[in-house]
Design brief:
- It contains 6 helices and no strands.
- By secondary structure, the protein is an all-alpha fold.
- The longest helix has 23 residues.
- The termini are close together.
- The C terminus is likely disordered.
Length: 124
């Protein structure tokens, strides 16, 4: 894990969510998955947070850093910001998607490419 990753708000919680995902996944379905398929399955098939109140609580004092992460990511990758920053639920789910990229990257690197996905994420 790089130094920047260590300081991302809620990184450890998102990492734990991914570890649970790996532990529960059907190894036959994702046995030959690549990193992008794994990321998509873990962080783009369902909402991480549902509800404005829950999203606001989840962000807590890191709200502005989370919003800035989403804005920077979208500008860098898409040239514009498409996530409405006045909708906490959408901001949180996009943020988790973004941090999820790093979580999956760290996981895949820790297991040497993971051509066959293990049943647990003990190497993270």
């Amino acid at each position: 894990m790089n130094e920047i990753t260590k300081h991302l708000p809620n990184y450890e919680e998102i990492k734990s969510y991914f570890e649970d995902f790996i532990a529960d996944l059907d190894s036959e379905t994702y046995a030959e998955s690549d990193e992008s398929e794994l990321h998509h399955a873990a962080f783009n098939n369902d909402y991480y947070i549902i509800g404005t109140h829950k999203a606001k609580e989840w962000c807590g004092s890191d709200t502005w850093e989370i919003i800035q992460t989403v804005v920077d990511y979208e500008k860098d990758n898409f040239g514009e910001v498409s996530t409405p920053i006045d909708e906490p639920e959408r901001v949180v789910n996009m943020y988790v998607y973004i941090v999820g990229e790093q979580v999956v990257y760290d996981y895949v690197r820790s297991c040497g490419g993971c051509h066959k996905l293990p049943r647990t994420a003990s190497k993270m």
